Amino acid sequence: MSRAWLERLAGALSVVVLLAAWEVACRTLAVPVYLLPPPSAVGAALVEAAPRLVPSAGQTFLQAVQALLLAAVVGGAAAVAASLHSAARGALRPLATLLQVTPVVAVAPLVILWVGLDRAQLSVVILAAAVALFPLFSATLTGLTSADPDLEKLFDLHRASRRDRLLRLRLPSSLPFAVEGLRIGAGLAIVGAVVAEFVAGTGATQGLAWRILEAGNRLRTAEMIAGLAWLAAMGLGLNLILGLIETAVRRRFGLAR
Fold it and tell me: What are phi and psi for residue 223, nearest 5 degrees?
């Protein structure tokens, strides 16, 4: 058995042991179900609440993917501009850093007000994109400015235009960095979408955050944890897809991980 499979098996066993310990502890200590339900109750809630949770999970996932794509377009374009012009780099870096360190909870009411209370889904996408933007911008810019120096000299020797240098050298060399930024941004986009749904305080988006709030108000703790399980599954699934894309890109360019 390969080392990779041994690591996967160890991870699966650790999850099984954790769930078993959780189940035994809840039953042995007679913990109230509304306080901490056992995994069996959470599993039952996943089945019982599926008609509510599945569509809401799909809505949150769709908003997160839209936010990730928006962040990729804006962050990639900003990174290209910053790599071509030192003045643009000096202007964009502080703005990206400011966007990163500003809590989304603080700016969410303003964004919701500016976009319109009747367009809550658009507000969620914009806020989630803002959360995911910095790692995409930073990773892509690092890739664009990390091309092989010898190849840079070769392009200088042939007096290559700025456009040819960008399209034939810097963009291809930045792809592995950009995909890694996407993997980081994917998790942040899901987090941003959920936080934005919470802050919106309305069921207009019909996302998982609203379902979790609704279940919490009715003390359906098992359903709340079932919603969290859906969020974790979405994050893992999106990360797995992007991980496969990253592996393919690295193999294409002969880059070791």
Answer: -70, -35
User: What DSSP character marks residue 101?
Assistant: H
Rounded distance between C-alpha atoms, residue 180 and residue 160, angstroms: 29
* CA dist., res. 194 & res. 127, Å (int): 10
Q: Which of 226, 209, 142 is nearest to 181 (CA)?
A: 142
**DSSP string for residues in 208-246:** HHHHHHHHHHTT-HHHHHHHHHHHHHHHHHHHHHHHHHH
Whole-number Å distance between alpha carbons of 85 and 62: 35
Q: Rounded distance, CA 91 to CA 87, Å? A: 6
User: What distance in Å separates the CA atoms of residue 75 and residue 82, rounded to the nearest whole number?
Assistant: 10
Q: How far is CA 50 from CA 34, 44, 45, 65, 223, in A?
A: 19, 10, 8, 22, 10
The two structure tokens encoding residue 100: 């990163």
Tell me: the pLDDT tens digits for 88-97?
777 887 888 8
| Residues ≥6 apart with Cβ < 8 Å to 14 | none
Q: Which two tokens stand for residue 99?
A: 């966007």
* pLDDT tens column, 130-181: 889 888 998 888 888 887 777 777 777 777 777 777 777 788 888 888 888 8
> CA 62, CA 150: separation in Å to the nearest integer?
43
Reading phi first (left if > 0) and then psi (alpha if -120 to 50, else beta), residue 219 is in left
How many other CB atoms are found less than 10 A from the CB of residue 154?
Answer: 12
Q: Is the pTM of this model over 0.70?
A: yes
Q: b or e along 1-27 (b: 16 or more beta carbons within 10 Å of the residue's beta carbon)?
A: eeeeeeeeeeeeeeeeeeeeebeeebe
Q: How far is CA 35 from CA 52, 53, 100, in A?
A: 22, 21, 35
